[in-house]
Design goal:
36% helix, elongated, SAM-dependent_MTases_sf, transferase, 2 domains, alpha/beta, 9 strands, two-stranded antiparallel ribbon, 11 helices, Rossmann fold, seven-stranded mixed β-sheet, 278 residues
């Protein structure tokens, strides 16, 4: 492995070939360190790194080699075709969650109202508001720091979203009911080995696990949904790979109709939901 500081004087093409990460991550961090685009990386392939640039690149490589997620290092992640700022205060948006966005958009009537519960970076709410300018989109989170990130993402993507600081339904007393409630809540079981592996080690633990059986927040969302959904409205929730049957059970027990689960691109039942009987 070539040490990054030895990249001083090397061409960008050489750095890409000999840097310590895989090709994609090398490219992302090189573009970030030099503040250049992917196209510029190609057109400037014979440009040589200065010492200060090599030192900055070395610092980025070392952070990644310690396991820090690329999204936190560069401070951004693409989701649903949009760019989102991410910080360690919010989960990193993942492609799996695009299924929840698509299902929500498909069930949101013209001029309808949607609520995103536990919004984090705002990825779900902003993606929906950006796609459906006719709709009124609201989002809540119990973390003030997360809401600050979400508000910035809504502004950057020109997506009007009404953000609220709230512990689940707490701040919604008297609010007009919604046509769709969508949520990607904490659902990892306390003590799950994945919490100490990979990117999850760096993400906010309270956004990952309910510190219980993985279903406690899902139970709260299902139990309170009836009071905040319009008749015929939909409740849609992302959950763990092995929780679909349990979540369908919660929905059925609460009197929801058309209860079902949908599979993500990996063919895993990733989202479950139901419609409030009219």
């Amino acid at each position: 492995m070539q040490h990054a500081s030895s990249f001083a004087g090397c061409t960008l093409a050489t750095v890409l070939k000999t840097a310590p990460l895989d090709a994609l991550e090398n490219r992302i961090l090189l573009c970030h360190a030099l503040r250049i685009t992917r196209v510029q990386l190609i057109t400037q392939s014979e440009r040589r790194l200065e010492l200060a640039e090599a030192d900055a690149l070395q610092a980025l490589f070392e952070r990644r080699l310690r396991g820090e997620p690329i999204a936190y290092i560069v401070g951004a992640r693409e989701f649903f075709g949009l760019d989102f700022r991410v910080t360690p205060d919010v989960l990193i948006p993942r492609p799996d969650t695009e299924l929840l966005v698509e299902l929500s958009i498909g069930r949101l009537p013209q001029g309808g109202r949607l609520l995103d519960m536990g919004t984090g970076s705002g990825a779900i709410a902003v993606a929906i508001a950006h796609s459906r300018s006719d709709a009124a989109v609201a989002a809540l989170d119990a973390s003030a720091a997360a809401l600050e990130v979400a508000r910035g993402n809504a502004l950057a993507n020109r997506a009007p979203v009404d953000f609220m600081l709230s512990d689940w339904y707490q701040a919604l007393d008297g609010a007009t009911p919604f046509d769709v409630i969508a949520s990607n809540p904490p659902y990892i079981v306390e003590g799950d080995v994945h919490l100490s592996q990979g990117d999850l080690r760096f993400e906010p633990v309270d956004a990952l696990t309910d510190h219980a059986d993985g279903l406690s927040d899902l139970r709260i969302i299902v139990a309170g949904a009836r009071a905040h959904l319009k008749p015929g409205g939909w409740l849609l929730m992302e959950h763990g790979y092995d929780q679909a049957a349990a979540v369908r059970g919660l929905l059925s027990a609460a009197g929801f109709a058309e209860v079902q689960s949908w599979r993500d691109l990996a063919d895993i039942e990733r989202v479950s939901g139901g419609r409030l009987a009219q």
